[in-house]
Amino acid sequence: MDNRSKQAWEGWSIVGAVTIALSLVVSIEAMTAIAPVDGIRGIIRTTARSSFALFALAFTASAVHHFWPNAWTRWQLRNRRYLGVSFAVSHLVHLLAILSLGRIAPVELAADANAVTWIFGGLAYVFIALMAATSFDTTARLIGPRAWTLLHTVGSYYIWLIFANSYLSRAAIIPAYIPVAAVVVFILGLRIAARVSRANRASSLPSR
Question: What predicted TM-score, i.e. pTM, was given to this entire model?
Answer without folding.
Answer: 0.91
